[in-house]
Structure formats: C-alpha cells, structure tokens
Design a protein that fits this description.
The structure is a single chain. The chain has helices at 10-22, 33-42, 59-69, 88-92, 106-119, and strands spanning 2-6, 26-30, 47-51, 74-79, 96-101. By secondary structure, it is α/β, with parallel strands linked by helices. The chain has one domain: Rossmann fold (3-Layer(aba) Sandwich). A five-stranded parallel sheet has the order 2-1-3-4-5, with helices on both faces. Strand 4, helix 4 and strand 5 (96-101) form a beta-alpha-beta unit. The longest helix is centred in the C-terminal third of the chain and has 14 residues, at 106-119. It is globular and about 30 Å long.
Length: 120
Amino acid sequence: MNILIVESVEALARLWRGHLERQGAVVTCVETSDAAIEKITEQCYDVIVLDLVLQQGSALAVADFAEYRKPGTNVIFVTDTTFFSDGSLFAITPNARALVRTNAPPEDLAAMVEHYARAS
C-alpha cells in the first residue's frame, strides 16, 4: 500500500502514519496542497487521506488534481467540521470514498485505507 496523508496538524498525521505503517503501508505525509500536488506528480498512491480543511491550500484542488492526473486514486477525506455532512462532497468529488471525522479511532481510518488500497 502506498499512501499519501495530507494533514496540516503534524501530530495527527504522525498518529495515522503509525497505524498505517504497522499494517505494512508506505506512507508519505505532507502539510499543504502544493506539497500534495508535487507528490502526486511524482508517484502513484493507492489512497490519499486528505484533511478537508487544510491550513494552506485547497483539499478539493488536491482531490481534483489526483483524479485528473491519476484517475482512480481513492481519496478518504477527514474533517472536524460539519461542512459537507449532507453528502454533497461525493457529488462534486468523484474519487471521494469516505468522509471521516478527524477524531475517529485511527485503527478505523487504517481499516478503511486498507480496504480502498486493495480495491485500487
């Protein structure tokens, strides 16, 4: 599994990374949309774990670029807001597979990532 985590909060990215690496994943972490786009240009990822509200840049731009550049890349969005809780995210982002609360148990997120990585 080759996973990209795009998360502005370094401690949260480290927590998720640890759970994914214990499952055998190769994980790259970045904090901004520009860094994520650069990584997507350089290599393919089975799953992108993407914070919906980045401190720098646009998560939707990252998801859109991933779909354009690497069609079929699975994106799991994480958020601590209720924005898009109506499901509209799935209508505007065709590669969105899940919308997970930021405070969800990291093992649950890791299980979802593993599921979608196998599907890719």
